[in-house]
Amino acid sequence: MKNKIRIHRLIKNFSQAELADLVGVSRQTINALEAEKYIPSTVLSLKISRVLEQPIELLFELEDKD
Amino acid sequence: MKTIPLLPRHFRWIGLLFVIASLALYVSDALRDRSTSGGLIVKTFVFIDDTPGNPPALFQLKEVDLLLTLILVTLLIGLSCIAFCKRKTEDEMINSIRLYSWSWSVILMIVFGIIVTIFVYGMTFVTFAFFFGHLLLLTYISIFNLNIWKMNRRIAHEE
């Protein structure tokens, strides 16, 4: 699954640590999400979507292999 | 949502103390003169004691050497404290790494158990059997911390 978290985080001018604090996870988790090494749960996806003020389908995109 | 019951973070250090105490007991046992010193003979309650050469005992008080028991139990408690303590930040990715580490450690221990059962005999097999639970915890702790270390290294590399 691809995501555009990094782009929208930078648009909002958040650091990884700030976004992590706002959604209640560690900075490592945000880093792993942006590197597409980890697929978030529905709850975390919705929290990120709310903080970045973007619809979830714009932040996350399914790939053919998914 | 269901959460995994974990020990507070400082239990990692308590666990480490138990492991060190266990290793110290093991070293003192290995260095002791077996002809003059008889270990730690204590009268204790046993469920079963069918040591060859001794009359079998069932649910009764009996004098036994508790040193090996003490080494195994302190090591098991120590490793459990380390394995089941919380991280600084507990989140869903840490839980997924935890699940991944448990899965691989169980798979590795099953493979290890099969190999040992087929190819190892005698007292060495009994020794492996003693440490099976300890090895499972040790494998889990190693895989878990290796994954955390790899993740932190990737972040440091990005910076």
SS summary, helix count of chain B: 5
Which stretches of chain A of 5+ consecutive residues score pLDDT under 50?
none
N-to-C SSE series of chain B?
Answer: HEEHHHH
Poorly predicted residue ranges of chain B: none
Helix content of chain A: 55-70%
Order of strands across the widest beta sheet of chain A? 1-2
The assigned structural class of chain B equals mainly alpha
The oligomerization state is heterodimer
Give the C-alpha Rg of chain B.
Answer: 20 Å
What gyration radius of chain A follows from the Cα positions, in whole Å? 11 Å
Could you describe the 3D structure shown?
The complex is a heterodimer of chains A (66) and B (159). Chain A is mainly alpha-helical and 66 residues long. Chain A has one domain: lambda repressor-like DNA-binding domains (434 Repressor (Amino-terminal Domain), Orthogonal Bundle). Chain A is 58% helix and 6% strand. Chain A has helices spanning 5-11, 16-23, 27-34, 42-52, 56-59, and strands at residues 2-3, 60-61. Chain A has a two-stranded antiparallel sheet with strand order 1-2. In chain A, helix 2 packs across helix 3 (27-34). Chain A starts with a strand and ends in a 5-residue tail after the last strand. With 159 residues, chain B is mainly alpha-helical. Chain B folds into two domains: 1-86, no CATH class; 88-159. In chain B, 64% of the residues lie in helices and 11% in strands. Chain B contains five helices and two strands, in the order αββαααα. Chain B has a two-stranded antiparallel sheet. In chain B, helix 1 packs antiparallel against helix 2, helix 2 packs parallel to helix 5 and helix 3 (92-119) crosses helix 5. The longest helix of chain B has 28 residues, at 92-119. The A-B interface holds A 24-29, 31-32, 35, 37-38, 40-41, 43-44 and B 1, 88-89, 91-94, 96, 151-152, 154-155, 158.
